[in-house]
Amino acid sequence: MASGKISHYLKYGVPLLVNNLESLSKLINTYEIGIVIKDPLNNLEIQLAIEKILEQYDIYSANAKICFEEEFDFSK
């Protein structure tokens, strides 16, 4: 999260696919903003995660914007 890319994606409602790192997994699971990939070399896992996000894109997108407002919007 240090690079700031995640906050930019969330600001615009882009759902995330992330590696299974504790801080990222916690954020994903708390706000339901995407999918945690346990094995980034497993193409099937990634494909299924993308399909799941596309099926519920509006929900993940809305949650991403909420997450940004609650966790990353320091302009308030």
Furnish the topology, listing elements before pairings:
Layout: H1 5-11, E1 16-19, H2 22-31, E2 34-37, H3 43-55, H4 57-72
Parallel strand pairs: 1-2
Helix pairs in contact: 1-4
Strand order of the largest sheet: 1-2
**Which class best fits the helix and strand makeup?**
mainly alpha
Largest sheet: 2 strands, parallel
Spatial extent as radius of gyration: 12 Å
Helix content: 55-70%
Strand % is 5-15%
Low-confidence stretches: none
SS field, number of helical segments: 4
Give the overall form.
globular
The end-to-end span amounts to 20 Å
Average of per-residue pLDDT values: 94
Number of strands: 2
Give helix and strand order, one letter per element, not per position.
HEHEHH
Question: In words, what does this structure look like?
Answer:
With 76 residues, the chain is mainly α. It is built from four helices and two strands. The chain has helices at residues 5-11, 22-31, 43-55, 57-72, and strands at residues 16-19, 34-37. It has a two-stranded parallel ribbon with strand order 1-2.
In short:
This protein has helices at residues 5-11, 22-31, 43-55, 57-72; strands at residues 16-19, 34-37.
Relevant terms:
two-stranded parallel sheet, mainly alpha, 2 strands, 76 residues
